[in-house]
Amino acid sequence: MTSRESHRAEARTEAAAASSARTRGGLAARAGHAAVKEGTATMTDELTLLEKAALLSGESVWETRSVPRVGLRALNLSDGPHGIRKQLGSGDHLGINGSAPATCFPTAATVANSWDVSLAEQIGEALGAEAAALDVDVVLGPGLNIKRSPLCGRNFEYFSEDPYLSGKLAAGYVRGIQSQGASACPKHFAANSQEHRRMASDSVVDERTLREIYLTAFEIVVREAAPKAIMSSYNKVNGVYAHENPHLLQDVLRDEWGFDGAVVSDWGGSNDAEAAVKAGGTLEMPSPGLDSARQLLAAVEAGTLTEAELDVRVAEMRTLVDRIDPSLARKVDAQAEHELARRVAEASQVLLKNDDALLPLAAGTRVAVIGDFAETPRYQGAGSSLVNPTQLSTAREALDGSPLAVVRYAQGFRRTGGADEALASEAVDAAREADVVLLYLGLDETSESEGNDRTHMELPLNQVELLNRLRQSTDRIVVVLSAGSAVEMPWIDDARAIVHGYLGGQAGAEATVNVLTGAVNPSGRLAETYPLHLEDNPSHPYYPGKETSAEYREGLYVGYRYYSTAEVPVLFPFGYGLSYTTFAYGEVTVDAEGATFTVTNTGAVEGAEVAQLYVGRVSAGVHRPARELKGFHKARLAPGESATITIPFDEYTFRHFSVANDSWAVEAGEYWIGIGASVEDIRAFAHLEVAGRAADADADPAPAPYATGAVGAITDAEFATLLGRRLPELEGGRRVLEANSPLLAMHEARSPLARLAAKVLRSLIARSERKGKPDLNLYFLYNMPFRAIGKMTNGAVSMEMVDSIVTMVNGRHLAGIGGLIGGFFRGARTGKRLAAELAESAERPTPSTDSVRTGA
């Protein structure tokens, strides 16, 4: 057997073992799900009906309810996509108070550039260990929604525009977190790609696109990492709220994928408690008081909800509690975690440009350090993921400890924008004293935040103008970027080199300096496309959905799938990144099991290459993108070293979702297999005949533009054809608002007082943005529906009172005020009675399941 054959055999054995493990995991999950159902009676017989109903919503903002007499403890949940945010205020959802110190790792958008699943798992382990140390049971993350548009304000929390890469990395996080005994809670399930109207928006998407693009990452996580919980998203999906969507939660998540864990609502994301229980929503957070429990009791009393349906959800809660074991967690070493954060940031740095090999900089190089971000780093995004770091490095500190000679620092510009001649002149003077300018540019905190989408992809004008002025003095400028998503670069010719650190966490500044000096050879590769212009993005004509619907008219053509199919030029392609060394690829050989090829480091220094496998169909069949990522491998090689790499094919490689048959299918025919350093830098390719269903057995309902990827101007009729149904009707003008209308809709409300309130809220948001400090509380309020007033106030406002508030907003002030007063007293009485009955049942040694009924 040749060495290549031996390597292929080893790879096949590993792939088979992985496939077998996934199969065992899926079977175990299904068996566990069956066991939950089978054991439901045993688990729930000892609980009263009220206790069951109460268990399905929180006790407080971050805690679930407990029933000590049956051994059911409360769980603590916490944000944690890139660090544990354990709030010190028990009623604090939006970060008004501080949080406990924790390691701030690079954000998901940054880590995705590492293309390193093992590293993702190490981050997960650290998050799980720190969660246990902070008495956190459920880590709310990772976030793995698809970057449909570069404008989504929360893109820094998400991995990629590609579901395969997102799923593989997120699975690493989940395995790591759960190895420490905690539960991961991947989010936000599903099709949650904009912040505007995020709690009151309907994601209208065809089934094939939903399955292939927006659900596949979650599928990979469920099948390969078995998360104990999943968080549903705020939005509707095709007309039904995600937390009460039976197609998502039952048909796909549980029945198809075998998920047997708990589905947790996003905070305030529960709409209808009864519908959630029926559809598969387990836990409503935060606490709505006992109002949701009252609704469930009333539904059982009315016969619209059975106690057996309630029991299934209660069993899921009890199973979640039983699966969490903090004793498995290792001890936390804060300095070791900081060093891990630095290594992660180092592996994620992307060298975008390096003309004339300006980088790395030799020891003793005289550098001018310019830019506010060098003094005050932008190392994480704003919003619920905001972490209080255990320590924080700045570029100035890291450079002072480097072999470079810092001759001068200049702030250069005001972080929040606007011209400042004194700062700019100081920067130009500093540049004249140095051999090289290190110019730290980026997006400020108001540009990228949960609750608010960007409106453009530009850097602030004062930063661009400063770069242009510096270029008049020197052409040896290195731009160091800090941003959580793609930016336009019409200024690129003014920079000799560009290093993009994304949002690198608490040690990101150290990592960037190590790249600048060559202590680290950059190996990050872009996990998203950088278009030349925002208008080039396929979702641009449809993003964000301004009214009740967010229409995903571009279909499958998200990110590079569009650019490569429609042959639209880009600034930097998906998978792109430079190195201080070079790599050569050998020929690729393919068979039914995978693709094998060699990669050789042909340069003078050690480096890591991310080899990427792309697949396209050559034969006729249903429409699909020209190229899709279906595998990758990161190889570290010494100078002159070669590696033989096999990337195995798996269940995701050739499949597409057949709408006609409502199932996954593989079309028989010829497929193109490409191996490359990016989606546009294919180094070797081959063709493979794949067995499967005959192409003509699956009718393609898509209109003509979807065959070519020309999806920039899809008509209503064409999108309706793709959907297979009529489009939802958009609303406009002043109209009757409902409990699920967002507060921003008050701009068009019938009540002048409501319109005034909307204007005041918008002005407060604008004021916070001018200060450069995004106010998440205001963003949240502006986009939330009226019903969230009831869901987020721990029972102080009942849903009956919410209806009265809506009556007032619609101009019927007296009726609304009367209903509000009456609802307050009725709600207070009911809440007090139910709380007393809960307390009474807690003291009963042998409760009866029918001991509590409702008269509400």
Tell me the layout of helices and strands:
Blueprint: H1 3-38, H2 40-44, H3 49-55, E1 77-79, H4 108-111, H5 117-133, E2 138-140, H6 163-179, E3 183-184, E4 202-204, H7 207-225, E5 229-231, E6 236-237, E7 240-241, H8 246-256, E8 262-264, H9 273-279, H10 291-302, H11 307-323, H12 334-348, E9 350-354, E10 366-370, H13 372-375, H14 395-400, E11 405-410, H15 421-432, E12 436-442, H16 461-471, E13 477-482, E14 497-500, H17 508-517, E15 530-531, E16 549-551, H18 560-566, E17 570-572, E18 583-585, E19 589-591, E20 594-601, E21 607-617, E22 628-637, E23 642-648, E24 656-658, E25 663-665, E26 669-676, E27 682-690, H19 705-708, H20 716-723, H21 752-770, H22 776-783, H23 787-791, H24 799-809, H25 813-842
Parallel strand pairs: 1-2, 2-3, 4-6, 4-16, 5-8, 10-11, 10-12, 12-13, 13-14
Antiparallel strand pairs: 6-7, 9-14, 15-17, 18-20, 19-20, 20-23, 21-22, 21-26, 24-25, 26-27
Task: Describe the protein's architecture and organization.
It is a single chain. 35% of the residues lie in helices and 15% in strands. The protein has 856 residues and is an alpha/beta fold. It has 4 domains: 33 residues; 270 residues, Glycoside hydrolase, family 3, N-terminal domain (TIM Barrel), CATH 3.20.20; 206 residues, Glycoside hydrolase family 3 C-terminal domain (Rossmann fold, 3-Layer(aba) Sandwich); 173 residues, Immunoglobulins (Immunoglobulin-like, Sandwich), CATH 2.60.40. Strand 19 and strand 20 form a beta hairpin. The longest helix is centred in the N-terminal third of the chain and has 36 residues. The N terminus and C terminus are likely disordered.
